[in-house]
Amino acid sequence: MTSTWGAPVPDQPRWGWRETVVAVGVAAVIAGAGGAAIHAATDSSAAFHPGGPGSGGPPGAFGGGPPPGMCAPGLHGEFVTGEAATGFVTALSQTGTVTAASPTSITIRSADGFTQTYTLPADHAPVAVNDEVQVRGIRTGDTAQASSVSIERR
Length: 154
Known about the structure:
The protein is of the alpha+beta class.
């Protein structure tokens, strides 16, 4: 149909309730897909946690473990805990092979060659050279004191 200049505009077909329901349905599907994409992109399991500082808790907090895909235990490390008012403690952790053992101390060598000698608590389990162990302890000055020694089962 053709219009003539100056003639009234013919009535346009209007949307009925079916068209409105379809449009709302399409909008809901698009919104749902977008929300799912955002959730997948920001899902906590995809984030770097629990792991280092700032993940798995408030800013500066230590998370509960290594990031996904990095579940191997650490060979050795130390970190400082505490507060200025109550004092700081340097915590130690090492996994490796006993290279020397006496009733009062052990020396551990990790796979990367790092070696540390620890004084032992009086109630420690017997440890022998070539045992694979995990040691937890603290450093006071230059002295590393083992608080626990666990023999690894091969």
